[in-house]
Automatic annotation (TrEMBL):
GO BP terms, alphabetized: glycerol catabolic process; glycerol-3-phosphate biosynthetic process; triglyceride metabolic process
Protein name: glycerol kinase
Alphabetic keyword roster: ATP-binding, Cytoplasm, Glycerol metabolism, Kinase, Membrane, Mitochondrion, Mitochondrion outer membrane, Nucleotide-binding, Transferase, Transmembrane, Transmembrane helix
The organism of origin for this protein: Gymnodraco acuticeps (Antarctic dragonfish)
GO CC term (a single one): mitochondrial outer membrane
CDD domains with a match to the protein in the record: ASKHA_NBD_FGGY_GK1-3-like
InterPro entries: ATPase_NBD, Carb_kinase_FGGY, Carb_kinase_FGGY_CS, FGGY_C, FGGY_N, GK1-3_metazoan-type, Glycerol_kin
NCBIfam families according to UniProt: glycerol_kin, PRK00047.1
rRNA processing as UniProt keyword: no
TM helices/strands, residue ranges: 546-564
Positions of the Carbohydrate kinase FGGY N-terminal domain: 18-278
Gene of this entry: LOC117546713
Length: 567
């Protein structure tokens, strides 16, 4: 009896809770926060499998993504019950997601019509080149005045175009008016609010602004852009603000998380916008950098979109309410950050974990003149160069895996320096410190390297889940929920750790200059039109430098064998 009374009194003092679904490129999380203190009470994480059917292709299974959300919700509900926290205290759920990743599904059956094409995917490179060649002066920024974006493989419109052109099921569903398009947020909200039985087909302004079909000035789908890409507007989700009630959770009562049924989904932000909100960058000029699969630096530019002259994107930062103004941001996007760790682990087998990468790098404390440009998906900001490919240069006989590990961490920092420089040039007001978040920030060596390479302090919050926090804040503050106040005086004080630069600026500049030289070497690597080998597949010799490299390597091996035989 006493334990029950203690548990119930504990539940009473807890106050309103807000949950967040954080569906990222490599994992899904479900997290529950205290709306009054922003304290993280419980969470669960499930990793997501990526598939690479062909070189440059990156896909994920939409059903696996949805299932991972259910699993995270169920496990978190179990953990809350063990903590004697009443699940009925959860008053709202927010959604944050990997952006640009493109899905099409059948609204009658609820079935996905193809795998999700992930933002990193390069299969649309020839489509992008064809589109750029059609523009006056072959200008990749031809649509930037409306979209804030260059024409690139990165954004959803070209992925959707590819699906319509190359997947019969998608084409047929579009023709027969059964197709629904969405980014990951739309897929999840539609499924969680009923799916084929009345699910809500919507997105928010931040996710919509990453499709190339959205006008960032009118804050709606643009008929001219849709015509340009040949996309029928009827398949697009309705665009809503980032903070309003979209619909109620509809879950089978037999599920362990069935108690979440009826809770409003009332927040939706693309992951980088959510991190900006979670870092409380509500003032013009405030910025944050998130280190996840990629690296994303966003700077709040206020109520007016600012067009970059230095290769950055103009994007919608957030719109926190139906009647609230939209806020904009400049963004520097780097494709490969945490993904380089996965590559060293899964592809090369150099490391067994991200912790081991930090140990390896720390054991040498230098790359010994080795530079690693991880342009696996071309180069994003500030170059927007899809023909670039990854290179490791400056190798000597002395170089070992520990130096390569250090060079991989430095690469993340150099890429951030490039986008920070571009941002400082665009705004004219240099950042005096950098707020950071994301999975890689647990690597203290990386954070110190970042401060050294930027020559400014790097500030990391003690609670690293700022992306999920941002989605929870948007959901909890929505009209009709109102359990989370976003007034400056009500926002909780954030504890953080600060990393100060420890090397002299001259050394930092020298290393940065060498990095820039390495970047130039990675450019114009991939030939634009692949050469077929007769059966519709691309030959390895379609890349001229790669062809020379392979032929040269074979000749050297033959020569070495011949010499060995003569000795």
């Amino acid at each position: 009896m006493n334990s029950t009374m203690a548990a119930s009194s504990h539940r009473i003092t807890m106050g309103p809770l807000v949950a967040a679904i954080d569906q990222g490129t490599s994992s899904t999380r479900f997290l529950v926060f205290n709306a009054k203190t922003a304290e993280l009470l419980s969470h669960h994480l499930v990793e997501i499998k990526q598939s690479f059917p062909k070189e440059g292709w990156v896909e994920e299974d939409p059903k696996e993504i949805l299932q991972s959300v259910y699993e995270c919700m169920e496990r978190t509900c179990e953990k809350l019950t063990q903590l004697n926290i009443d699940i009925s205290n959860i008053k709202a759920i927010g959604v944050t997601n990997q952006r640009e990743t493109t899905l099409v599904w059948d609204k009658e059956t609820g079935e996905p019509l193809y795998n999700a094409i992930v933002w990193l995917d390069l299969r649309t490179q020839s489509t992008v080149e064809r589109l750029i060649n059609k523009t006056p002066g072959r200008n990749k920024n031809h649509l930037k005045h409306k979209t804030g974006l260059p024409i690139s493989t990165y954004f959803s419109a070209v992925k959707l175009r590819w699906l319509m052109d190359n997947v019969d099921e998608v084409h047929d569903a579009v023709v027969s008016h059964r197709a629904m398009f969405g980014t990951v947020d739309s897929w999840l909200i539609w499924c969680l609010t009923g799916g084929k039985s009345g699910g809500v087909h919507c997105t928010d302004v931040t996710n919509a602004s990453r499709t190339m079909l959205f006008n960032i000035h009118t804050l709606d789908w643009d008929p001219e852009l849709c015509t340009y890409f040949g996309i029928p507007m009827e398949i697009l989700p309705k665009v809503r603000s980032s903070s309003e009630i979209y619909g109620l959770m509809k879950l089978c009562s037999s599920r362990k998380c069935g108690a979440l049924s009826g809770i409003p989904i009332s927040g939706c932000l693309g992951d980088q916008s959510a991190a900006l909100v979670g870092q409380m960058c509500f003032q013009e000029g405030q910025a944050k950098n998130t280190y996840g699969t990629g690296c994303f630096l966003l700077r709040n530019t206020g109520a007016k979109p600012v067009m970059s002259e230095h290769g950055l994107l103009t994007t919608v930062a957030y719109k926190l309410g139906r009647d609230q103004p939209a806020c904009y941001a400049l963004e520097g996007s780097v494709a490969i950050a945490g993904a380089v760790v996965r590559w060293l682990q899964d592809n090369l087998g150099i490391i067994k974990s991200s912790e081991e990468l930090e140990q390896f790098a720390a054991s040498v404390g230098t790359s010994y003149g080795c530079y690693f440009v991880p342009a696996f998906s071309g180069l994003y900001a500030p170059y927007w160069e899809p023909s670039a490919r990854g290179i490791i240069c400056g190798l000597t006989q002395f170089t070992n895996k520990y130096h390569v590990a250090f060079a991989a961490l430095e690469a993340v920092c150099f890429q951030t320096r490039e986008i920070l420089d571009a941002m400082n040039q665009d705004s004219g007001i240099p950042l005096t410190q950098l707020q950071v978040d994301g999975g890689m920030t647990s690597n203290k060596l990386l954070m110190q390297l970042q401060a050294d390479i930027l020559c400014i302090p790097v500030v990391k919050p003690s609670m690293p889940e700022t992306t999920a926090l941002g989605a929870a804040m948007a959901a909890g503050s929505a009209e009709g929920v109102s359990v989370w106040s976003l007034k400056p005086e009500d926002l909780s004080e954030v504890t953080s750790e600060k990393f100060e630069p420890q090397i002299n600026p001259e050394e930092s500049e020298f290393r940065y200059a060498r990095w820039k030289k390495a970047v130039q070497k990675s450019m114009n690597w991939e030939t634009t039109e692949p050469v077929g080998n007769g059966n519709g597949e691309t030959s390895i010799f379609s890349s001229v430098p790669l062809g020379f490299y392979i032929i040269g390597s074979i000749l050297m091996l033959v020569g070495a064998k011949y010499l060995a035989g003569n000795n």
